[in-house]
Structure formats: C-alpha cells, structure tokens
Task: structure prediction
Amino acid sequence: MCRVVELKQSVLARNDECAVALREELTARGTVVVNLLSSPGSGKTELLERELTLARERGLAVAALTADLATEHDAARLARSGVPVKQVLTDGLCHLEAHMMRAQLDGWLPDGTRLLFVENVGNLVCPAGYDLGETLRVVLASVTEGEDKPLKYPTAYGLANLVVVTKTDLAAAAAFDEAAFRANVVRVNPGVEVVLTSARDGLGVGTLLERAVAALEGGPVHRPVMARPAPHRHGGDGDPDAGHHHHDGPAHHGAGHEHQHSAPLR
Amino acid sequence: MHEMSIAQAIVDQVEASSEARAGSTAHQVNLQVGELAGVVPDALRFGFDLVCEGTVLAGAELRIEPVPALAECGPCGTGWAPGMPPDLVCPTCGSGTGTELVSGRELQITAVHWSGGDIRVPRAEEL
Result:
C-alpha cells in the first residue's frame, strides 16, 4: 500500500529554527552577530583584524569566531587585535551551520560581548544558504576578483545586508571597474550599501564596525529583495499549515516553513 | 558542495516523521527547488543517493520540481522573470527597492511517498 504525505516543509527548517533561537538568545544577552562571507583570499582576515583592533581601542566588547577547513592561522592573526578569538575547524565542511555556531559559543562567548564577528569559511556558494543567527550579513570582494563576482554568486550577494570591497589600494593595478561592480550589485541586491576599503592604506577602515554598531543599537538594516518573504497575495507560500495527508491522520511535519535568511526586522 | 548537507537535511526530516517511526519505507521524495535557491539539482541527486543508504529512504527517488523565479515591482506592478543571474531592478520603472520576489527561493519538501509499516500514523501531539 502506497501513501502520499503532502507537506510544505523547508529543507533547511532545522537550521533556520536554530538560527532564529540563537538570534533571540544572543539579542537577549545584548550580542549581535555579524556574518562575513567571501571567497578565499579576499582579505577579510586582514580587514577584520583592523576592525577588531579599533573596537578594542574604543573599549567596545567584541569577539570573533573564524572558520576554516584547516589550520589556526586566521585565529592567530585575529588574536593580535587583543580581543577574544576562537578558531573553528570544520574538518573539510564548506560552511558553518547554526547548530555548529551554538556549540562553539557555549562556554566560550564572554559575557557582555556586544558584537560577535564570524569569519565564515572562504566560499561564496555554500555558506550563503545558512542563517547563523546573524543580524548583519556582509559579503566582501577584493578588487582583484573581477566586477562580475555579484553575478557569478548571486545568492551570496543577493542576501547580503552590506557589501564591502577590499584591497582598493590594488584597484588601478587590477583595472577594477567600480561602476560595473556597483551596477552588478544593484542588479542582484538593489539598495544594498557598497563600502570601499583598504586595510593597507586605511581607506574605509572602521566603516564595518560603524555599521555593526548601528545594527547593535537597533538601527535599520538593509533587507535584500531575495531575503524578503514572498507576498502572500500570490498564494504560493501563505498557509503555514499546508501539510496534509492523503489518508487518515494529520501530517506530522505540520507547519510548513518559509525558508528565510533575513535578519530580524528592527 | 553543500548539496550533501542539503541532502542530509532532507533525509533527517523524512526519518524524523511519524511514518518512518511507524516502520514505513519512503520510496519517493518530491522537492521544489527555486531557480534562485542556490542548489544544483544534479549535485543534490548525487548526494541524496549517498546519504539515503542504510535509512528508510534507501533506494528512494528524489523528484525535483524546478520553480522559476518571478519578481514583481510593488510601486508600478510590473511582473517579470528575473532570470539567472537575477535582474531584480524593475524593467519598467527602474526601481529596485520596491521589488518583491514572488517565487524562486523555494527549497522545500512537498510530498513523501511511503509504503509498508503501520498505517495508523500517530498524531503529531502524541509523539
């Protein structure tokens, strides 16, 4: 006998539920998470080290988690800033998931931490699908990567609350076309702010920290088109209890769950 | 390749269902994958076959229903297919801030086909 159970359940529901719970828990503790996504070699560790140093100098309690497949090099670099840093080794996994975040924070995240920066695994594909409980998701791109990066990785760029361009000191050598890059960002994520930085010569250093502090203080965070819930009038995903059986008994999976990566509305 | 993680999430959800607990075997899973979900169907099928081994889904078929992306401009009402990579700026009024994505981000299980086991499935609240 064959039975068909119809439901409408997000594949990543568990991750999303864990992320929502983590975000609420951290918010209650006064901590906001900033999730940093980029390709390998984008310069995010160097920029982050500068931002963490600035935060420490300003007396702001910050901490950082850095994820890599292997080595503790990034944690050693970030620790030079003098703030609490933890290395997460994913043993080959290409991204962090919310439950991994939670496991890392338990017993480590110092009380009173206001901002937790998470340097995700260097990868623009896989981490994009996983909400880690962040309030601010930042995608970084170095000027050497090419102007079409936002079009090649539309999910990563399309879900970002902020885009940071790094290594602008190399812009001339790399023939970086800023206008083309910005146009490509607008195409996949209209309205998102693009910040230019150079950790080497100091351009824009501190802006990431300012945006994070603004989010911490409850300021408005850009909501990407791709992260917004679909309008209900089209009837696609409106009913949260759409699951039902073709035979007796209710669907165990019950509540369908729209798959969202958006930061909470503030 | 996060499709392996996605496949594992599908298997975890199906295995956690009341039908699996009642001893049923799943032989088909229907999945909607939006054009902008960031998931490659072929890689997902490959991962699915691997992670199904030794579970109630062993040998199950993953039937993927692609969902095209559709966008709509709130201010002017224009609807369009943003394509891939998506163009989320309204082709009529040039605004992007009022764009709504009507579809294209789906990544959801829509049905599971079961056979065998105790068909009197316990109610969710009884579990």
Observations:
- Chain B touches chain A through 53 residues (CB under 8 Å).
